[in-house]
Amino acid sequence: MAGKAEMVKSTVHNEASNAVSIGYMPGLDGLRALAVFAVIAYHLGVTWTPGGLLGVNLFFVLSGYLITSILYKQLESEGSIDLKDFWLRRAKRLLPALFLMLISVMLWALVFAPDRLTQLRQEALAAALYSGNWYFIFRQVSYFESFGPPSPLGHLWSLAIEEQFYLLWPLILSLVYRLIPRRKWIISIMVFLALISAGTMALIYIPGTDPSRVYYGTDTRAFALLAGAIAAMILPCGNMSLKIDGSKRKALALTGSMSLIITLWMIFRINQYQVFLYQGGLFIFSVAAAFLVAALAHPAGFLGRIFSIRPLRLLGKWSYGIYLWHYPVIVLSSSLVDTDGPDILHSVFQIAVSILLAVISYYFIEEPIRHGRVRALALSARVSVSAALIFAVMLVTSMEGMQILAKDLSGEQETAGYSKELQSHTESPIDTEAEAEAPPEGHGNSITVIADSMMINVEPALQESLPGIIVDAEKGRQMYDAPEVIQELREKGKLGKYVIIVLGTNGAFTEKQLKTTIDCLEGAEEIILINTRVPKPWQGVVNEMLTNIVDSYYNVRLIDWFAESSGHNEYFYKDGVHLNPSGIEAYCKMIIDALSESQS
Questions:
Q1: pTM, rounded to two decimals
Q2: DSSP label at 278?
Q3: In a shared domain, residues 249 and 341
Q4: Any idea what the CATH number is for the domain that residue 516 is in?
Q5: What does the angle CA 174 – CA 176 – CA 180 come to, to the nearest 5 degrees?
Q6: Which of the ends of the chain has fewer CB neighbours closer than 10 A, N or C?
Q7: Does residue 420 share a domain with residue 404?
């Protein structure tokens, strides 16, 4: 009986509405579980799910589908939408868990990273007002190329987009319904708006540059929500029947299966730096996800039964809390300096902690508030107990790396501390055996290095070992800057016959940009590319691009710094990128050995 009761209650992201019932669709809870774990895999840096960030799009499509199903059914049955009731229910569903997480993170910062409080306070306020995505846009906070320690609140931009949708969509839908009540015209308007949104993304995005503006923007992500809304209008969940003929059942199975294949293929194959993603890829994914949602919502579909297994349904019910908690847990329990490769046990620990915190939040705070089963005094007690439990868990998590990261967050990695240490170190010659193996032809006179901030700290040591070497390094430099730099060096007569390219620390680049850079070096006897070690998502993309390009040019060689530095945390300062004296010594030796091979 309990299972039957569960199957008939109404939900929107596990939420009931007094105004209208759309029926419980357990398969959608399973899809939420897939979405949230795709996002977790992406944030954990799991290499075989480069498209895990697409899990956010799944949430957008789901929200568009479920919210539109409820709103349109209410319009049809009552002629209007009870906006006050709708917004109150959304607030009761979303705000308690969010505030609990924000308070916990702020307490963590107060104890472990007080220097971070000012920035986190601003981000927390933006998150509470559901304007975090625009806050990041206007503050030019990159989702993909931000340097230094990530913010534990950086994932809340997507909740801001959803909440803006919840605020505006009932008003828009009500207005359109009053002006043009026919369903087919409403669908046409939705399709038009979705195409405008996708087109805006493609138009604004400039290949090879940071895509954060189009990634964060409500205007450029609305098509995913609208794709779900269109699916709700075409296949209303309240009108689905278990009894459909064989041909329709086969069509439903085929459509659902193909949509699932496309969804999974893109999660496993697409990465956030591919031009295709912003010039139609996200739109295609959203359309496939909309078909998948509709197939899972249909009671006659076999996929719905597969996604309805109890573990997936439970994880789907907790998915909002898991999404809220997973990123703070990952950020606050990970050290930026980690050259030992993936730690599966540590990742499992982080996932388990995220689920535990979500469960505490769900049963102690969210459900009682949502269903009005708690009085003020009882609520205070629940909040206190939940906060105590959560803070205790996060305190335990700190043993896994939070205290290390707290020092990173304080900004010490960019202060004069390590600069002074570096200066004192480079005032005397680097003590390496490699210096005796330096290239014989005028030492460094024939060598030019074009680099980003990675090489700024290394330059004095290279000058010491290779007198006359030209090092042109600049903070924030990207691959697309290289052709102009090469031209300037050539005009000044500073472009040697051996050219070393050290770019990729600050972000990914396209194959075209890399080839343009290499082609600009026509006439160089040898071009040496050095790959990167940077604790950011673009590390693998950059290193794969550099590895693949080598076979296309006879005079291009790769130095594998990523492999050379593996297992050597002691080479790096706390940002996990810039080298301390020990790392500089190893880096210089690697370069000198490579040049010796070239000139032998």
A1: 0.85
A2: I
A3: yes
A4: 3.40.50.1110
A5: 125
A6: N
A7: no
Regarding whether 434 and 343 lie in a shared domain, the answer is no
Catalytic residue among 21, 347, 453, 596: 453
Is residue 453 annotated as part of the catalytic site, yes or no? yes
Q: Which residues pair with 501 in a beta bridge?
A: 450, 529
CB 73 within 8 A of CB 22: yes
DSSP conformation class of 440: T
pLDDT single digits (tens) 145-157 = 666 678 999 999 9
Please tell me which residue in 43, 298, 326, 578 is annotated as part of the active site: 578
Q: What is the mean pLDDT of residues 440-462?
A: 83
For 470, the 3-state DSSP assignment is strand
575 counts as catalytic: yes
67 and 204 part of one domain: yes
Same domain, 514 and 396: no
Instruction: Please state, as a whole number, how many other Cβ atoms lie within 10 Å of the Cβ of residue 460.
Output: 17
Q: Which of 374, 389, 409 is the last residue of a domain?
A: 409
Amino acid at residue number 484: E
The range of the structural domain enclosing residue 273 comes to 2-409
Coil/strand/helix, residue 161: helix
Q: 329, 153 in Cβ contact below 8 A?
A: no
Q: What is the pLDDT of residues 371-397, one digit of tens each?
A: 776 666 566 666 666 666 776 676 666
Residue with tokens 């954990």: 44
Same domain for 559 and 519? yes
pLDDT at 560: 96
Locus of tokens 């779900």: 228
Structure tokens at 495: 């472009």
Domain count, the chain: 2
In this structure, are residues 153 and 328 in contact, taking their beta carbons and an 8 Å threshold?
Answer: yes
On whether the CB atoms of residues 250 and 301 are closer than 8 A, the answer is: no
Q: pLDDT higher for 178 or 438? A: 178
pLDDT digits (tens, 9 = 90+) for 19-31: 455 667 889 999 9
Active site includes 598?
A: no
At residue 55's C-alpha, the angle toward residues 200 and 354, to 5°, is 135
Query: 245-284: per-residue pLDDT in tens?
Result: 778 888 889 999 999 999 999 999 999 989 999 999 999 9
Q: Which residue, 371, 390, 409, sits at the end of a domain?
A: 409
Looking at every residue in the chain, the average pLDDT score rounds to 85
Domain shared by 371 and 507, yes or no = no
> Does 463 share its domain with 327?
no
DSSP state of 437: G
Residues 519-540 have a mean pLDDT of 92
